[in-house]
Design goal:
The chain is α+β, with helices and mostly antiparallel strands and about 190 residues long. The chain folds into 2 domains: about 10-95, no CATH class; about 105-185, no CATH class. The protein is about 30% helix and about 20% strand. It has 6 helices and 5 strands. The longest helix is centred in the C-terminal third of the chain and has 12 residues, at about 175-185. The protein binds zinc ion (ZN).
Length: about 190
């Protein structure tokens, strides 16, 4: 079977100056099925060019593993190594947040009343993150023209910003967290919604 065409990538800056490489997010890969499909070929997630030196060919190097509690499974993450500058790039499918132990769909579910038997502590933690100030994120999205400039009233939380994105029709309500996180990530690499 033909490997699927490389998805669109978004780069984050390196976490530190000394670190080579970083994380790329495959924004179009939203499910486990496509993720497995792409993992099956070394080309499935291969970026066209190294984001650090701009010229190196990237070789499928090794894997990292991320445990996602809501899916109760370990997700394999492919890493590529640049043949020229030795930068290492890991490629996350869009449904895996960079720093959290649950998939975006799992987090979306926790937000709603459908949450059911999920641990209270986890739900609280999510609520706490979403209640952080969203002012910087809002201004960012307004400056970029993603959201209209006019409404600067109040002091929005992150949840409030997500809500505005839904109201403006920028993101779908069912996948609001994941889509908003991708938007913010695209706006300023390194800044995260959650
Ligand atoms: Zn390179």
């Amino acid at each position: 079977m033909e490997p699927p065409a490389a998805p669109a990538y978004l780069e984050t800056s390196s976490e530190s100056k000394r670190q080579r490489g970083g994380t790329l997010i495959a924004v179009l890969v939203s499910g486990m099925k496509e993720h497995f499909q792409r993992l099956s070929s070394p080309d499935g997630y291969r970026p066209e060019v190294c984001g650090r030196c701009g010229e190196g060919r990237l070789h499928a190097n090794d894997h990292r593993y991320r445990w996602l509690r809501d899916l109760q499974q370990e997700v394999r993450i492919r890493r590529y190594l640049c043949a020229v500058c030795r930068a290492v790039w890991q490629v996350l499918p869009a449904f895996v947040p960079r720093f959290l132990q649950r998939s975006w769909p799992g987090l979306e579910q926790m937000q709603g009343e459908r949450a059911g038997p999920l641990p209270v502590a986890t739900k609280k933690r999510l609520a706490a993150r979403l209640s952080l100030s969203g002012i910087m994120v809002l201004e960012l999205l307004q400056t970029l023209g993603v959201l209209p400039q006019e409404d600067r009233s109040g002091a929005p939380t992150r949840a409030g910003v997500v809500q505005r994105l839904v109201q403006a029709g920028v993101v779908d309500e069912r996948t609001a967290l994941q889509e908003s996180a991708v938007l913010v990530h695209r706006a300023v690499p390194g800044v995260r919604l959650m």
